From TrEMBL:
<keyword id="KW-0326">Glycosidase</keyword>
<keyword id="KW-0378">Hydrolase</keyword>
<keyword id="KW-0963">Cytoplasm</keyword>
<dbReference type="InterPro" id="IPR032979">
    <property type="entry name" value="ENGase"/>
</dbReference>
<comment type="function">
    <text>Endoglycosidase that releases N-glycans from glycoproteins by cleaving the beta-1,4-glycosidic bond in the N,N'-diacetylchitobiose core. Involved in the processing of free oligosaccharides in the cytosol.</text>
</comment>
<dbReference type="GO" id="GO:0005829">
    <property type="term" value="C:cytosol"/>
</dbReference>
<feature type="domain" description="Cytosolic endo-beta-N-acetylglucosaminidase TIM barrel">
    <location>
        <begin position="87"/>
        <end position="363"/>
    </location>
</feature>
<dbReference type="GO" id="GO:0033925">
    <property type="term" value="F:mannosyl-glycoprotein endo-beta-N-acetylglucosaminidase activity"/>
</dbReference>
<dbReference type="InterPro" id="IPR017853">
    <property type="entry name" value="GH"/>
</dbReference>
<comment type="similarity">
    <text>Belongs to the glycosyl hydrolase 85 family.</text>
</comment>
<dbReference type="InterPro" id="IPR005201">
    <property type="entry name" value="TIM_ENGase"/>
</dbReference>
<dbReference type="Pfam" id="PF03644">
    <property type="entry name" value="Glyco_hydro_85"/>
</dbReference>
<protein>
    <recommendedName>
        <fullName>Cytosolic endo-beta-N-acetylglucosaminidase</fullName>
        <ecNumber>3.2.1.96</ecNumber>
    </recommendedName>
</protein>
Length: 558
């Protein structure tokens, strides 16, 4: 049984194995790898360059190449997933039947994802590891000690022999490797005795070095809490009180009650490592600039104005605090406001396949046919998600007043690209593409940019391209006036060049499944005798193509 078959196990008929945290030092020291490893995706490559989120507009009447930036030189975005204590239905290794459970799909704007709970050693469930790694995003677990009970746990490590501390570090590294994680968030939220501060610093340094030896891309990030004299005193900036910890790890996650002048001081303290300072932003708005909620972007904007990275805490706010039937449009609204402040990355390397499934469904489809009527939720089965923020009605449609509300809202999709859960070619959903209703584009071709990417094609490589489309209206044939567009960077031929694959493309082979209505188009692009690169993927809708489902997209070397 290969990994994908393992991931596809039915949660009812299959294995109900759970991922659980480790609650004590003894559990960590006695931990051993599972006899039967869980199916885990390796970290996928992503583009070496990034682009500013403003480059990824939902609809355009002209298609221009995106301005590229070296991703090593731009601020990063960390998401810290804290939801109701963690280990909800996402703890099941092979998913659950709770199709309304929380899902995350804005991976293109994120660099690091932290799975957080208030347990001593939080191991990220494999459904999150697989979804993050599919999109090239690092995923970290959490080591946390809090208050009096946490102080005792920490002292059990710090007061042990040097050999015991080294064994503790070794176990954390082994746990990361076994469960596919890429590092740790270290959160010490209890007083530390002054004599133990140096030992704590050495432990952090040893862990960081050991992680780098075993997982070269790993990250160990320190939370802004304890100071150099052991006091539990959040600084809300990088300064002399907490810099000794920052100096021996990969970054610091600042507490949320910061001021702009403190961010400026943080830059001076960090020097050449300013991008390793993650400005904490609490989406629930607790004492945070801007008040969080749909105004979270105000705090992010302040951090970005200083050129600093950002750590978004509890990004599942929409799912926790609004009626579930409103989750999708409000989640898109939340992230659309953030997108201009993020640096977007995309997939790198062929083959590339996606059905746009978000890892859940009211039923499950395979090649357009219903495979199971049972609702399901398994983020391990998520497919690559678009790099653009989906278009929705203006946020002014949201209720006024208190940012947290269970109130029903009237916000509806008026955008031209949206996730569509009522049909699928593979998985539990697809994309619905429409001509925009909020701008005058009559008689013009509309371009929906889907992916920013980096797919290298060799001199002797032919390409095989396929996609599946269907009308969103029952019984109606999919429109012919739709084409898949690829943007090629072909230096030898003079730079960028766009090419479209539609119904009139020479050599196109098309097949229609009359039972499901899905139409599959296939194209072969001959080898060109020189190297080139695919940098963007879009869908072009001509005036007569008004409403279509896109259920499959595949590009591979042939």
């Amino acid at each position: 049984m290969d990994m994908y078959e393992e991931l596809c196990k039915s949660p009812c008929k299959g294995d109900c194995t759970e991922c659980v945290p480790l609650l004590s030092v003894q559990e960590v020291l006695e931990w051993r790898p599972d006899e039967r490893p869980w199916p885990l995706r390796p970290l996928s490559p992503r583009t070496a360059c990034s682009s500013v989120g403003t480059s990824h507009l939902c609809h355009q009447t002209q298609w221009r190449p995106t301005k590229l930036l070296d991703r090593r030189t731009v601020p990063r975005t960390l998401v810290c997933h804290d939801m109701k204590g963690g280990y909800l239905d996402d703890r099941f290794v092979y998913g659950s039947d709770n199709h309304a459970d929380y899902r995350f799909f804005h991976w293109a704007g994120v660099d690091i994802f932290v799975y957080f709970s208030h347990k001593f050693v939080t191991i990220a469930p494999p459904v999150w590891v697989n979804a993050a790694h599919l999109h090239g995003v690092l995923i970290l677990g959490t080591v946390i000690t809090e208050w009096d009970s946490g102080k005792k746990l920490l002292e059990e490590v710090l007061h042990g022999s040097k050999e015991k501390r080294s064994q503790f570090v070794h176990q954390l590294v082994s746990i990361c490797k076994h469960y596919g994680m890429d590092g740790w968030l270290i959160n010490v939220e209890n007083k530390v005795e002054p004599k133990d501060v140096v030992v704590l610093k050495e432990l952090l340094e040893e862990l960081t070095a050991a992680m780098h030896r075993e997982i070269s891309h790993s990250q160990v990030i320190w939370y802004d809490s304890v100071t150099r004299d052991g006091s539990l005193k959040w600084q809300n900036e990088l300064n002399a009180e907490n810099k000794l910890f920052f100096d021996v790890c990969d970054g610091i996650f600042l507490n949320y009650v910061w001021k702009e002048d403190g961010l400026a001081r943080s830059i001076r303290q960090a020097g050449v490592r300013a991008l390793d300072v993650y400005v904490g932003v609490d989406v629930f708005g607790r004492n945070c600039y801007g008040g969080g909620g749909f105004n979270t972007s105000a705090a992010v904007e302040k951090a970005r104005a200083q050129g600093l990275s950002v750590a978004l805490f509890a990004q599942g706010w929409v799912h926790e605090c609004w009626a579930l039937e409103n989750f999708t449009p409000l989640e898109y609204t939340f992230w659309r406001k953030l997108w201009p402040l993020l640096h977007v990355h995309g997939p790198s390397g062929l083959p590339f396949d996606t059905s746009f499934c978000q890892g859940y469904g009211e039923r499950k489809y395979k090649r357009g046919k219903v495979e199971s009527e049972q609702p399901w939720h398994n983020l391990s089965l998520q497919m690559p998600q678009p790099c653009l923020p989906i278009c929705v009605e203006d946020a002014s449609q949201l209720p006024k007043g208190d940012a947290v509300s269970k109130e029903k809202v009237t916000t509806k999709f008026s955008g031209c690209v949206q996730h569509w859960p009522k049909d699928a070619y593979h998985g539990g959903g697809c994309l619905r593409l429409q001509r925009p209703t909020n701008i005058e584009v009559f008689g013009q071709r509309i371009y929906h940019k889907l992916f920013f990417c980096s797919f290298h094609v060799g001199e002797q490589d032919a390409l095989c391209i396929s996609y599946a489309i269907k009308s969103s209206q029952e019984g109606k044939e999919a429109p012919k006036d739709l084409a898949l567009g690829l943007l090629f960077l072909d230096t030898a031929a003079g730079g960028y060049r766009d090419e479209y694959f539609g119904v009139e493309t020479k050599g196109m082979k098309e097949s229609l499944d009359e039972k499901t209505g899905w139409k599959l188009r296939n194209y072969v692009v001959p080898a060109r005798g020189r190297r080139y690169k695919i940098t963007e993927i879009c869908v072009a809708l001509d005036p007569n193509a008004t409403d279509v489902l896109l259920g499959w997209l595949s590009i591979c070397l042939y």
